[in-house]
What does this fold into?
Amino acid sequence: MKITDGNVLLTSPGRNFVTLRLQTDDAWGLGDATLNGRELAVASYLENHVLPLLVGRDAFQIDDIWHELYKGAYWRRGPVTMTALGAVDVALWDLKAKALGVPVYELLGGRARERVRVYGHASGATPEAAVESVARFVEMGYTAVRLQCGFEGLPDTYGVGRGDLYYEPASPGRPRVETWDTTEYLTQIEPLFALARRELGPKIELLHDVHHRLTPNEAARLGRLLEPYRLFWLEDATPAELQEGFRRIRSQTTTPLAVGEVFNSVYDVHTLITEQLIDYVRMAVAHSGGLTHMVRVAHLAELFQVRMACHGPTDLSPVNLAASLHFGTAIHNFGIQEYMRHSPETDEIFTPTYELQDGHMYVSDDAGLGVSYDDQSAEQYEYTPAYLPVARLGDGTVHSW
Ligand code: GCO
Ligand code: MG
It folds into this structure.
């Protein structure tokens, strides 16, 4: 079944999405090629350097195409390359599943579970508002909720949503500047979780994202400080490039650790996995070479009792969420899926068929990923350059955002 055509599609229903559509005479498949704030780099990589190599290739040779694009480029890894490769890979799985008339999870080994547990994003300008927000997620049926809030001296810190359900950190124009202060954070975070446990009881699973802002030693202190509140995980406790940094954190605390949303290769995570320095790998299917590569990461992780929990923010499209849910449905050592609701305008373009019920997601049994692309709705929204914020300390020094 030969690939006859491919299109890179840009749309911006409140935020930018890049989608790859690959076609054969009888089927089509979609892949998410969105890299927040660097969208056009991936679009150009695909259009200029990948699509010309794909037309005429057998769409069913997914693994061979993966290796040709990975090894054949000579220049390996990196977010732009691996996002482009991820879009091709997911589009080919979608296409092949459609051509065979089965859902993607069947090709990944079949169902390992009936439904995929998700966690929601609660946040508020103050600890009180954030804990109330968790309570609303619990009322909606969620069994796991991420808790972030603004603190005194840190009004615009990472993770505080502008509305209750939609979270969008990127903004048009030059990057917004946010202020960071580690002492303010480390002195106010423990009372937040104390309040949450007092109000919400011991059972609800609570998660927290540090967003790469601490050193390994500060992160170790935080992990210890939060032990009494039984976190489900502490995410991105220290900048993720330094795998060895996690040795310090791991040796000091039993708080479970998750990391990986800025990774794109198994080589970014192999020390963390093989030394059992983390509990969850949070790589995104879209940014990590697609399902083909993520299955390899999952198999390595399984050998070391590490679980998979794919990055699933709203700055990736429903195509990526659907791919993550098929992965979560089929992969034995899957842990939990991040879920932030997409806007109604986004869902109108992609019309996803997955469904949320009682804090769990169900993928449909439609052939492929169960997501489509409505060109007409998409064309209403023109690509608008937008950037993530930059963080600076009080004295003006740049800090990890
Ligand atoms: C998460 C992430 C996101 C990122 C975003 C950057 O845990 O979902 O930290 O909120 O900040 O994906 O584009
Ligand atoms: Mg995160």
In short: The CA atoms of residues 120 and 137 lie 7 Å apart.
